[in-house]
Task: structure prediction
Amino acid sequence: MDLESLNWKIAAKAGEGVMSSAKLFAKACKRQGLSVFNYYEYPSLIKGGLQSGLVSAALQGATCQRRHLDLLIIFHEKFINDHLAELDENSLVIINANAFDASKYPELKTKVVAINLTKIARDQGANPLASNIAAIGLSACLFGMDLGIMGRVAVEEFAKNKEAAEKNLLVLQAAFKLAQQMVDDSSLTPFGNLINTGVDEQILVSGNEAIGLGALAAGLQFYSAYPMTPATGLLHFLAEQQNDYPIVVKHAEDEIAAINHALGASFAGVRAMTGSSGGGFALMVEALSFAGVAEIPLVVLEAVRQGPATGLPTWTSQGDLNFILGAGHGDFLRVILTPGDVQEHFVLSKLAVELAEKYQLPVLIMSDKYILETNQTMPKMLLKQENKRFSMLNDGQLGETGLTEGEYLRYKYSENGISPRSIPGQVNALQLSNSYEHDEYGFAIEDAITTKKMVDKRAAKLEALQKDLPKPLYLGSKNPEKILISFGSTINVLRDLLLDEAAAKTAVIHLPCVCPFPALELEGLLEGKNAEVFVLEGNATGQLAALIKRETNLPKLRSILRYDGRPFYSEELVEFLKNQQLNEQYRLI
Amino acid sequence: MTEINLANLMSPVAPTWCPGCGNFSILTALKQALIELKLNMEDVVIVFGIGCSGNTADFIKCYGLHGLHGRGMANAIGIKLANHRQKVIMIGGDGDVYGEGLNHLVAACRGNHDVTAVVFNNHRYSLTTGQSSPTSNKGTISKSTPQGLIEDPIGVLSIAVSNGAGFVARAYAGKLKQMVEMIKAGILYEGFSLIDVQQPCPTFNKEQDYAWYQQNVFDLPVDYDPSNQGQALMTLLDKDKLGLGILYQNNARKAYHDEIPQLSEKTLIEQFPKEINLSKAISEFI
Result:
């Protein structure tokens, strides 16, 4: 039987290697031509605690994690209780053990098979951690996957250690063979044969990596940050690129230094970025305001996790929207992009770097743990990217400018608010980039007339800027009974929801940019629609709904809120569409 | 190219410092140092902190970044990494660099970033009307410490010497020629140079006036060896007498940017990727 989709999960203690094995499994599914969503849950510690890696793969869809599992592999029996809600009579559980006593778990409807994965690894002379490889070997057999592809993925992963790679391959093959024998003697039932399309044109990247790729494509040359989950992945990815691309990555002493390094680099003419989560970003906001008044291009990733304060460091949230909207003292223009899937993270990250330079302002990318640390497939991007400079004197070329001394003015008044920016090293283009309010040269001023003119000049950028911003996306029914509005990563779940027949009369609107707010566009999309409108967001107070109410004339909005660190699940939203009921982890107002 | 001369450095804005302020002579020394080094106007960037010292931003013409209180050092490091051919100078006060920005000062030392910090040290927060600063003496009575300052002054030059700064010097606003030499040597040094300039604040620091300084500063002896880190630290332990000159210089240590392979041939700004091929970056995602 051909299989078009699978939902697979591996769970163990932190430090037991499930992160990498889940990624291997996800990659093998991608290589078979499927779309993949590879989602992780883990505690904020290095050893112990439950950690899981989930792979949803499908020929069509697989845009988000699924609650229901086909196969669950667990390394410790006690974890079975954590997963009861994900299992039914069609699921299978493999437990890394010699035996399993089902009578201890009366509520368990699922078949559980005990297999000693560690022994499979040991028998091949491999490290006990290779029990993970045994797990994916068994899985490959049960899902009828191409063992050759799986083997290549595993060998590539361990390319730096040839001996480990060879042993892992033996473990993989031994586990596959064992599963085959168990299928033959009917102690295991395979799920079918996962489709192999033979067309492998996608890449499998996390949201963080997609942002990194987008920024790199846009000519980002400087990234400084202080590690903080879930933004750390971007720091790691870009740091790794220093060997191959003209980029400097600086692990700064704190977030205040990180953003100020980036501002310094940007002032000197290179495209620069910083990133953190809410707590680190909180330390950056004075400098964000500096970028605003001094008109220094800057991109900031705010990787939201469940707060407040230290909160739940490794769990998701969209609770920092109000903070990002208001971060920084004084009035200044900013852009806040809220990408959805990893492809949009790539596209909007590139756009963020360009917009920051073109309009000489801070551009924030608001994303969250859910998508930043999830691996998702996206089509391969154009590999050869071209870049040009924006709004810079002499296109940023150092040396002679053709100007005479005293002619150039950094903050020269202009209709669209943009003044060509000089950089150190350009002749006769001296300027003072100033955190004080300033005159056209940059010298500090305090007079009322210049102050107002400068505030107005910066604000004037809005008109041109709006044309360059991504527009709201409308999906689903043309004549909906319900419209679900969301921003950021939630679209991944809503795309999946739309595939369900319960959503036949449902439409979805995704906002990839919330500041400047696309009021006219959103009102236009809702015009003439006689539907109940719900705003879905990952926070407790309905921050996006409040923003929409402030910025538009839209009538009644209701909110569907989740603020327990977990993402939305399409299965739970299907229930809502069918019965108007949400489980107790949601709040409907 | 425009060579630096006094006319080119002249700002249309007149200084707003108090009569008798040490800042006047420090600015004169800075300009003189830049002129004597025969640099070009476009090859120097000065980052300014916030305070009376930071206000120098308006009183000199140059490529300038007038940033936030305490954070100028972090800006300066970013500038240097983006374009390491620039001579990057950071100007701030004792409150700015030794108080609010101390973490960044230590980072600049540890990295030996090729930035020259000139710290206008008047032992007061003068722009905010004279509160005690990290370098004020214990017992200092100010508006924020009317019962007398309880803390000891920070031994910041010892921190610099013991944490990797390649060049640490002390100058005094009352000795112009020495100041010029210190600033020149700091700019020429390829690594982090910290020049602490002791200066009177006639408005808010009546205890440490010119007369006090005449009694309490001395030139380091002729046989003083700046390469001797231990001797430098011993000299700095004496907080009562202020030795002037190059306290410490380590010529063996590379500047931060010199240890970055991707900057070995060209500056970062010269490598702007007009075309970029993502093949390598996506290879692990295929």
